[in-house]
Amino acid sequence: GNKVYENIIVSRPAEGVALITLNRPKALNALSSPLFKELNEATEELDKDDSVGALVLTGSDRAFAAGADIKEMKDKTFVDVYQNKFLEDWTKITGLRKPIIAAVSGYALGGGCELALMCDIILASPTAVFGQPEINLGVIPGGGGTQRLIHAIGKSRTMELTLTGRNFTAAEAEAWGVVSRVVPEGEGKVVEEAVKMASVIASKSKVAVQAGKEAVNAAYEMTLAEGLRFERRLFHGLFATQDQKEGMSAFAEKRKPTWNHS
Ligand code: HXC
């Protein structure tokens, strides 16, 4: 069975798919330290679990997550946050080998928006509301919002959102490329679609999926020349796998491949 947590729920809605549901409904899934600790623990465990091919992260219909927990942060001093490296453990999710899809419905604000941006793919419900409202609290995004939004939507929009704190809609998020698509309206629909997508990913060769994720992410860190070289080396490396032999033989023999993930 799945481990029981206080602030999240872990379930297996389909073969190869693990679903993590943020579960602090009374606080609109505000991302408290205990919640993040559990999220990191669960994702780390699922990343190692051979029966899992892809993860889905979601909240409730009303809120993916309304941000870092303001009540927890409010009285912290500079020395508190600096010495304890406040928020440093937030980036762990970006180090997962397996793909993680954010299924966003309702509020994804501040740290909630940043958490979605840390995922590999974002699907949004038409009700999704994104934003970086930190400026209204006298601070700025601290979980990568400014940096990750720049890559997705460019400087002018990132600057506008960061400095005005205004929210943006699911339609804007889609038009700007923040999300891969907005799913049709309906309760739970965005999770259903994300689980379907995760099932498709989980049906592929795990080693190829890992390489694909690593290659795409390299584009964030490397120059084009370095990134192309990195991609080609990973591609070359896959010729050492049984899944490459199986995948290409299956095509030539007009049958479906059976991956053994090695
Ligand atoms: C703590 C929060 C919270 C948050 C909501 N709640 N957001 N608690 N931290 N981020 C709590 C409320 O206090 C309230 O608790 C309950 O959830 C329901 O919220 P309401 O405000 O009553 O709901 P509503 O009127 O529908 O308004 C929804 C909302 C609003 C627009 C999303 O809650 C809101 O503006 N929240 C804050 C959004 C925000 O500023 N996020 C950025 C945080 S800073 P009670 O007990 O009163 O019922 C941040 C920094 C990240 O994320 C930096 C590093 C990652």
TrEMBL record:
Origin superkingdom: Eukaryota
Cited InterPro entries: ClpP/crotonase-like_dom_sf, Enoyl-CoA_hyd/isom_CS, Enoyl-CoA_hydra/iso, Enoyl-CoA_hydra_C
Record key words, sorted: Fatty acid metabolism, Lipid metabolism, Lyase
Gene Ontology cellular component list: mitochondrion
Keyword Protein biosynthesis attached: no
Keyword Lipid metabolism on entry: yes
Gene3D superfamilies: 2-enoyl-CoA Hydratase, Chain A, domain 1, Lyase 2-enoyl-coa Hydratase, Chain A, domain 2
GO biological process, one term: fatty acid beta-oxidation
Enzyme Commission numbers on file: 4.2.1.17
GO molecular function terms attached to this record: enoyl-CoA hydratase activity
Family: Belongs to the enoyl-CoA hydratase/isomerase family.
Name of this chain's protein: Probable enoyl-CoA hydratase, mitochondrial
